[in-house]
Amino acid sequence: MLRLDSVGVRYGEDDAVRGVTFAVTEGEWLGLIGSTVLGGLSHRRLARLVAYVPQQPERPAGMTVLDYALLGRTPHIGYLGVESDEDRRQCATLLERLGIGHLTARTLTTLSGGEMQRAVLARALAQQAPVLLLDEPTSALDLGNRVDALELVDELRLERGLTVLSAIHDLTLAAQFTDRLLLMDRGSAVVSGAPAEVLNPQRLSRHFGGNVHVLRDPSGALVVAPVRAHTHLAAENRQSLQAWGG
Question: Which of 52, 53, 168, 202 has the fewest beta carbons closer than 10 A?
Fold first, then answer.
C-alpha cells in the first residue's frame, strides 16, 4: 500500500498542496485530477520501490534509447556491475511493446516528444518497481498512441500487480483507465471515489469551470464532453449530447 498523510507542498510563500491524505492499495490505479501532488524522486533507495515518469524528462546528450531504458535496471545492478544480456532483452522487449523498438540506436535528442515519452515509460517499467508514479505520461502523444500507452500500463499493472498513481488531465481517459479518482482543487483534496462518482457535471463545472456532459458510450465507458455555451449552436449541441448519452 502507498499512503500519504497530511502532505504539503510550498513554493516560496504559496501553499501548492495542503494537508492531503490518501492511500492506494496494492494493484490499484488511482488517478489524480485537478492540481496534483506528484514530484521528483531522486534517492536510489526508493528506486526499487517506486518508478517515476515525469512530464518533462531530461535528455542526456549522446545517450541512445536502449541505454536510456537500461537506466531503469540500475537499482538491480551493483555499483560495480554492468547490465546483463537479460537486462538488455527486457528493455528491448519493453521498447517493442511501446512501439519504438526500431529506435533503440537513436539518440534521445533526435526523438519527437511522443517518442521520448514512450522511452521514459520504458525506463520506468524496466525498474520493475511495485509502485508506478505517472505525471501526465501521455501528454505529448496523439490520441491513438495515448490510449495504447495507457493500455500497456494497465496490462503490465495486471501482470505484475503494480500500484499506479497518475496525474491525468484528460478526464475521459482518467475515467476509463483508473479504478479510483482523487479530485484536487487549489491544493486540497475535494473528493475521492470511483470515476462515475467523482465525475458529475455539476462538480466538474464547479472545480474546472465551463459546462460539460458526462455520458456513456455504447460500450458503457464514461466520456466527459465539453459543451459550447456562447454560440448559436450551443442548444443544439447540448440536445445532441443528451440524446447520445441516453
Answer: 202
